[in-house]
Here is the input.
Amino acid sequence: MFNQHYCKILVLATFVFAASQSVACSRPVATSTSTSANTTAREGDEKSVEEDILFYVNKFRRTKGLKPLEISNVISIEARDHSKSMATGRRNFGHDGFESRVDDISKKLGTVRAAAENVAYGNLSAEAVVDGWIKSPGHRKNMLGDFNLIGIGTARGKGNIVYFTQIFINKPAATAKK
Here is the structure.
């Protein structure tokens, strides 16, 4: 059984040094109530949802002939912290603090050529949130961008709503640390 839920999605164009742009949009995203791999995120399984998001993002990239992104714990910590901040209301839903997250990542990983971020919230499965990002031109552009590392973080907020953050990084291969 599928129900239609609306997921507010903000788009951040690829961030290169100090240039960024934000655009707002809304779109319906289907969610599943089954107990398969497409189940919505529940308490305690956020890590599994994050792994599933990586799977669906890389599956999509492969269909376009792109290399898979490697998960980075350093970047995922930043993504989780941002999702937690939105879920608890410490930050509004969106990209506030993106430059600071990229600075923190750069301090730990070294030179970062480019970075981008996708966020979403809703009662969504990993597959549904990735599908919503694919259908949104700005999010899609980020997922298909010239990146080699990704961080993914989820957090549950009021009303059992899940907040999702993806951070994409282009890190020179010779110096890439995860």
